[in-house]
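Most newcomers find our protein records easier to grasp once they have seen one. Sequence and backbone structure share a record, each on its own labelled line. To make this concrete, we reproduce a full record directly below:
***
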Amino acid sequence: MSYVMVDVEADGPIPGDYSMICFGAVIVEPGLSRTFYGRLRPISDQWVSEALHISGFSREETLAFDEPKQVMTEFDQWLKENARNRRLFISDNNGFDWQFINWYFHHFLGRNPFGYSSLNLGSLYKGVVKDTFQTFKHLRRTRHTHNPIDDALGNAEALLEMKERMGLVISFE
């Protein structure tokens, strides 16, 4: 199984009405060396300035980003090359990140190479420590910057820590 940690930045709360601005992905394995980063041109005339501000880009900058279909095609190819076995989408906030990745894959490619399910890192950690009031964020080494590669790497580091120090059973390709 290939665990693919994903982080999304968007200019609003839902796909379709708003746009995924950029995303990062990392194959969860020792070394965390296989990463993907995509920046996507907006698909909508709507945006929430506070949401866009989090990404660190201006609206004008995003209008020069790559066509979404091209980015999703490149991500699909990267997944084929780097996550050959069953792919498991995992993120810190999969309710948010999954909805954008799933919508964009289906809208632009007609399918989602992750299938129909995802995993929430925070919920997984709560189960490991048996306490719904705990958070995994202290396990990150890479600072959370809202650059989706940094954020995906930090979350992948936390998952590896859960495996190495807490006995979480996960396997690599």
The mean pLDDT is 96. The radius of gyration is 16 Å. The domain at 2-166 is CATH 3.30.420.10 (Nucleotidyltransferase; domain 5). Residues 148-166 form the longest helix (19 residues).
